[in-house]
Design goal:
The protein has 372 residues and is of the alpha/beta class. 33% of the residues lie in helices and 28% in strands.
């Protein structure tokens, strides 16, 4: 079996590792030229992401990822203001009703780990244009540089703007909610001066004051990333690891579309927090401007099942879950790896295997209306 994956995000790279571990030939095509492009700041990593990591990656990669996670996140905090100071107003257990227990992960560092060992499989700077299904059941992928490639299975792991989805399922549209989110990171050494990191510990926290909502999370690496790399993946050289330090992740809803540049988004975040208590203002004022990003919030409504074929999708390319989408993408990757491995071994037919994966993916991504 041969598999083409479009998109080198968390889900696509997890799938590539899993297929390679299963002895299946895989190639990943990524439109962006840069290996280290920003993909958000942090990910709340729960049991779904952890299970996928352990199932699909080599043991050394798993050890590196686990060594650089933050502390346990077993409750969610609600903050308020008391006599001009930020205080904890409520603490709720992460029991799965709203949030699952987990640990914070640096998305940039995790992607660097996922890219390690796939240097010969990932083709950067290659834009996917479309595909053709051939008479022999294979799929021909076409690229902007004139290139062509053929495989038994084509997987769209190319995010919210998926070119694979637009051709394969043109009726599935992303609905723009009109909402935006500003996200950034602040060195813990700077944020600590305001006392907020000590107040919230490793727990995710949110606050709504004076008309502004803010989400916060502290990432204290369990082990210095450079030391963990030297122990587990010594061949991995990346400034994301060499320059890593503990940080505070923050997010702010924005009523209108912020500036598209990181510096412009950071300035807008400072405007939104100008009236907040000093400890919260400090978080944004001392942030790394170059890591500030603005995201448009969209949704993909539940859709009826479609006939299984040699083309399929995973992650944000087919379902959007702000806040935990990375976990679902990696869960999709694990499940798809499992069924493709079964098909490659002759344990089940290929198309029914893909159909079983898609049924499970729709069930978890769209629990209401799955029977539509």
């Amino acid at each position: 079996m041969r598999v083409i994956v479009i998109g080198a995000g968390l889900g696509g790279l997890t799938l590539a590792h899993g297929l390679r571990q299963a002895g299946i030939d895989v190639v990943v095509y990524e439109r962006d030229k840069a290996r280290g492009r920003p993909q958000g700041v942090s990910l709340h990593f729960d049991d779904r992401g952890m299970a996928a990591l352990r199932a699909c990656l080599p043991p050394s990669h798993v050890a590196m990822a686990e060594a650089t996670m933050g502390g346990p996140r077993e409750q969610t905090l609600l903050l308020s203001e008391v006599d001009g100071e930020v205080a904890v107003a409520d603490a709720r257990p992460a029991d799965g009703t709203v949030a699952r227990p987990g640990r914070q992960v640096s998305r940039r560092l995790l992607r660097a780990v996922l890219l390690s060992g796939l240097e010969d499989a990932v083709r950067f700077g290659t834009e996917f244009l479309g595909f053709d299904r051939r008479a022999d059941g294979t799929v021909l992928a076409r690229f902007a540089d004139g290139g062509r490639d053929t495989a038994d299975v084509l997987v769209g792991a190319d995010g919210i703007g998926s070119a694979v989805r637009r051709q394969y399922l043109p009726h599935v549209r992303v609905a723009d909610t009109g909402r935006h989110m500003l996200m950034g990171a602040t060195p813990l050494r700077a944020a600590a001066r305001g006392g907020l990191p000590a107040l919230i510990g490793d727990s995710p926290a949110s606050v709504r004051l004076r008309g502004t909502t803010m989400a916060l999370g502290v990432h204290r690496f369990a082990e210095p990333p450079a030391a963990a790399r030297d122990r587990w993946l010594p061949a991995l050289r990346s400034p994301v690891i060499d320059d890593a330090e503990d940080y505070v992740m923050w997010a702010l809803p924005a009523a209108r579309e912020p500036a598209r540049s990181p510096a412009g988004s950071w300035r807008r975040a400072r405007e939104l927090t100008a009236d907040l208590p000093a400890a919260l203002r400090l978080i944004v004022d001392e942030a790394w401007p170059e890591l500030t990003a603005s995201l448009r919030i969209g949704t993909i409504p539940p859709m009826p099942p479609w006939p299984a074929g040699p083309v399929t999708l995973l992650g944000d390319a087919i379902h959007l879950a702000p806040g935990f989408g990375g976990n679902l993408a990696m869960q999709d990757a694990r499940r798809l790896r499992d069924v493709l491995r079964q098909a490659d071994r002759g344990e089940r037919e290929l198309l029914p295997a893909i159909g079983a994966y898609e049924d499970a993916m729709r069930r978890d991504a769209f629990p209401v209306g799955h029977s539509a």
